[in-house]
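A favour between colleagues. Tell me how you read the following sequence-structure pair.

===
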Amino acid sequence: MSRDNFDMGVRGEKNERETMRFVGGFEGEISDHARYELSYTFGQTKSKVLLTDYRIGDRYWAAIDAVRDPATGQIVCRSDLDPTANINPDNYDAPATTFTPGAGSGCRPLNLLGNGSPSQAALDWVNADILNRAKIQQHVVSGSISGDFGQFFELPGGPIGFAIGGEYRKEKSSFVPDDLLQQGALADFSLQLPEKGSFDVKEIFGELSVPVLKEVPFAYNLSFGAAIRLSDYSTIGKTTTWKVDGTYAPIPDITFRGTWSEAVRAPNITELFAPRNGGFDFIGDPCDPVYIGEGTQYRVANCQATLAAAGLTPEQIAAFNPENDPTATVSLPGFSGGNRNLKEETARTWTAGVVLRPSFIPGLLASFDWYDIKLKNAVNTATAEEVAELCVDQPTLDNVFCQNIGRDTTTGYINSWYVQPQNVANFRTSGADFKLNYGFNTAKTGSFAITLVGGYLNKLEFIPTPGASVDVDREEAYYPKWNATGDITWKMDKLTINYGVSWFSKTRRYELEQTNANPDIAESKYLKYKEKWQHDLYVAYDVDERFRFYVGANNLFDQQPSIASSNYPISYVGRYMYAGAKITM
């Protein structure tokens, strides 16, 4: 029986958080060329999460196993008449744990036939509100000495600056689930025990700033910098982060700049120690004939292998078609949680750019920077659908994603999933950022400020596991090739008017694998989401220094989301108008 349980109580969530933070420290001068800083920071967050209307497993099974009492003719729970009756259909030997079967157990028959049929008494007996508690703490002790070598020597551009120091951080978290979760008593969650975790890290760092030349012919400014940080984590061991950079301005009007660096990010406490939580998700089986052509060159062979491993015969594999079976297209139970085996992710980055401040156009500042980033062992959390697809899209089934997808040994249908962060092989991205600021004053019409900020996405690639095919994400939804925001602000006396535009280019509605496998998946005009064009207007009037009135509108021309999308490329809210006042006490 398949049923939408709209009448069985609204699942809700209420979060209550209490956060506190303490910071203290000392700072002072060692000499005219050196200073010291020493600080301690403590932070803590406690949370209570109340989840409403979750089914208690043994009570639910007992309540729907309803029969007619031969003595009274009334509908009652079978377990009231026969305390030895089976309670759990998935485990016939499992006893009731949250009630005692027999007369007076409190069981109320639950009628599932028809919307609104369950009685409130039955729902009150079957459903429960559960309360989970969590706490996160952080301690940070840091100290540094900074200054320059001016008392010993100077370069033509000035004294060499330096900073050295160390830091100690400790983080810990704990999670205490509701007693019903600890008993494994809920129908939609497995047994969930209390969890806790902690890690600490010791670090030392150093930094140099080297001003080589300053205000000399052909070198208005020439400087270099370098930094290094050595870390020792209790979870992943030793890591090294470093950076070198430089700037060169032949004249005041133009500056060239660049950086080369390697950065390390250790997995945070949530990624490592997040508790195992249950949930539901819809998964389109990538091995179904509808989707099998939308993957990599490995999908067909891997699907045949995984279905055979699940116990299906060649005839069953040939007839495999879960999309046509209503029992296979329901919301599937699964879990999400942390991963204590995560390692650090490492990014190698280089940037190069130019900044223009033309003296013949006062008030103009323009910059352009190119970036190239390679991220190895990146921590990424796939969705349940992505886990199923990535399992069969790798060179072999021996990958971390297949470990987190379960299949029924009779039908081969996906029957469970587990989502957790994983160290994937590689991200690669490159592109450009640009910015333009121009401001000027007029004698009679006030002042104007113009800003334009934009970007170009040249490359965005994701390799889920070593040896896998490259997944090209550029121009997919949320990753446009071009983006820009611009605004102009006019001020005159007490009046301020700002007009802004936010835009990005068209993006693909379907992944490349989908369109390659299904060239006629949609009409050409629907293959891409439309551009974003959001216009905003803000008008303010300052009555005096302490009182301002303002009105405005976001999405002034009421652009609508693209067809078949609720909130892309723009919010479903539509035109949003507001008015208010700001008072400075």
Summary: The chain has a mean pLDDT of 92. The chain has nine helices and 28 strands. The radius of gyration is 31 Å. The chain has three domains: 12-252, 273-343+383-419, 352-370+428-583.
